[in-house]
Amino acid sequence: MLFILCIVSLLLSPAFLSPVQNDPLFKHIDDHSHEYIQRLKEWVAIESDSSDPSKRDQVEHMMQVTKDYILKIGGKVEMVELGDQEYSPGVKIPLPSVILAEFGNDKTKPTVCFYGHMDVQPAKKDDGWETDPYVLTEKDSKLFGRGTSDDKGQVLALLHAVESVMKFDLPVNVKLFIEGMEEVGSNGLEKIVEEKKDTFFSNVDYIVVTDTPWLSTKPGITYGARGNCYFFIEVEGARRDLHSGGFGGTVYEAMSDLVYLLGVLADVNGKILIPGIYDDVLPVTEQEKELYKDLIFDLKDMQRDSGVSKFLHSTKGDLLMHRWRFPSVSIHGIEGAFSGSGTKTVIPAKVIGKFSIRQVPKMKPSVVEKQVSNYLESKFAERKSPNKMKVTMVIGAQPWLANMSDPQYLAARNAVRRVFNVEADMIRAGGTIPIAKNFEDVLGKSVMLLGIGGPDDAPHGQNEKISMYNYIEGTKLYASFLQELASI
Ligand SMILES: *[C@@H]1O[C@H](CO)[C@@H](O)[C@H](O)[C@H]1NC(C)=O
Ligand SMILES: [Zn+2]
Predict the structure, then answer these.
(1) Closest to 81 in 3D by CA, of 198, 191, 204, 210
(2) Residues whose beta carbon lies within 6 Å of some atom of ligand 1
């Protein structure tokens, strides 16, 4: 699952969202729901864990099964080989093939390309699962199993949607870009996007990622994500670790410098103290504020889930804005510091502080890097410590923000109205979604994240599930989206 903080929100029973059921397309989907669940069961049974080299054949098998199904429902498929992965020095294992598929090739129709993945996170019954993770188990109208939500269930819902719409008339060209290494960092994917830019992707108008959860029981469309600028501050004070009995009171300690520097990054209320850091943050518009009003989001749920006694913000809108559209700084760790239990009177010779800034549009990583370095260097200079200090930015991942007026967003919102009779939640991810930014940068196409996962599906955890409601109504959502896209 593209990482989005999931919060349990069970206030609303899905039953109130009366879907329109007299539509022949929807009736077709309902009539086939048992078959859809059966297929999910077969796909969940394939242990396509991309992190485990001993299961790499299972990932490839999963790609082949997916290919066969796409062929069966009338698609054309090209399997792209990625070669080997150097798993550890000297140990090579094959990377799973990537699926490039298409349904229809009519130049008068718009073309939408969907991205999804067939690999899963590791799962063992011993990890604390109540059921066998690779045996789809139905309980309380929920389907439990690894990959049900992330991402086999979402990809299958899409395939069933394409198949259903084709029973009537497919009004758009559909392409599929499906990989098997998402959970371990999408090895080789950027290269394929580059290589296929002028061929497979050349006629693509829209890109839709089907690998995200909703914020609540209401369907959510994700239109933005924060970036991540990750920093190391290295402070070196001695050639070797010293002992406080012998050196305490005689040396400028590296750790004291580092703790000071980490301490001046933000104030107690989370406000970042680095000069200029907020300069490029887009102002909040009235229109944007409106989007937050109808979001179903309960701070109490988030509090229960996290065990946090008080958040920095007290309203839903404030809190979500600070999670999604304002920058934040977080301190992650100190390498080289004593962190074991018990007592140790060491004075570490060299320590590396690690923190990151989740930056937002229009903040540029290169500018953030300068602002952070200048600030920390001036703060360090003020201390007049003789130690060596060095700041480096080790990750500079860009934020992503789509234009919500793009036709595919309008089509998705229409589709949500049609299936669920509600307005879609327009949401963002507080984390980073490199693939969205990558598609946008390399292909210059509009990207949208239209997933069907629930907020409490536990995509990377124990007892992953998708509700039957999300799975089947989500199939209708994708089917409606294909039809709506043609009429925008
Ligand atoms: C967003 O898209 C709309 C419609 O295509 C266009 O009119 C508008 O200028 C775009 N906004 C930005 C900021 O690009
Ligand atoms: Zn995923």
Answers:
(1) 191
(2) 403, 405-406
- The protein residue whose alpha carbon is closest to atom 5 in ligand 1 is 406
Q: Which of 60, 119, 253, 257 is catalytic?
A: 119
Give the domain ranges of the chain. Answer: 17-225+399-487, 228-281+326-397
Q: Let me know if domain 228-281+326-397 sits in CATH 1.10.10.10.
A: no
Q: How confident is the model at residue 1 (pLDDT cuts 50, 70, 90)?
A: low
483, 412 Cβ separation under 8 angstroms: no
pLDDT tens per residue, range 58-82: 999 999 999 999 999 999 999 999 9
Residue 238 CB partners (closer than 8 Å, separation 6+): 247, 251, 254, 347, 349, 350
213 neighbors 417 (Cβ within 8 angstroms): no
Report which ligand 1 atom has the smallest distance to the Cα of 403.
1
Protein residue with its CA nearest to atom 6 in ligand 1: 405
**Higher-scoring residue by pLDDT: 13, 484:** 484
CATH class of 17-225+399-487: alpha beta
Mutate which of 403, 404, 406 to test ligand 1's pocket (most atoms within 8 Å of Cβ)?
Answer: 403
Sign, CA torsion 301/229/458/208: positive
**Residue bearing the CA closest to ligand 1, atom 3:** 405
Residue 53: closest CA among 189, 190, 181: 181
Active site residue 119: yes
Select which of 150, 163, 179, 182 is catalytic: 182
Q: If you take atom 7 of ligand 1, which residue's CA is the nearest one?
A: 405
pLDDT of residue 2: 56
The pLDDT value recorded for residue 16 is: 44
**Which residue from 205, 206, 287, 405 has its CB within 8 A of the most atoms of ligand 1, so it is best to mutate?**
405
pLDDT tens-digit map of 429-446: 999 988 899 999 999 999
The structure's pTM equals 0.90
DSSP lists the bridge partners of residue 355 as 231, 331
Model confidence at 164, pLDDT cuts 50, 70, 90, reads very high
Q: Tally Cβ neighbours within 10 Å of residue 33.
A: 14
Q: Over 60: is that where the pLDDT of 18 sits? A: no
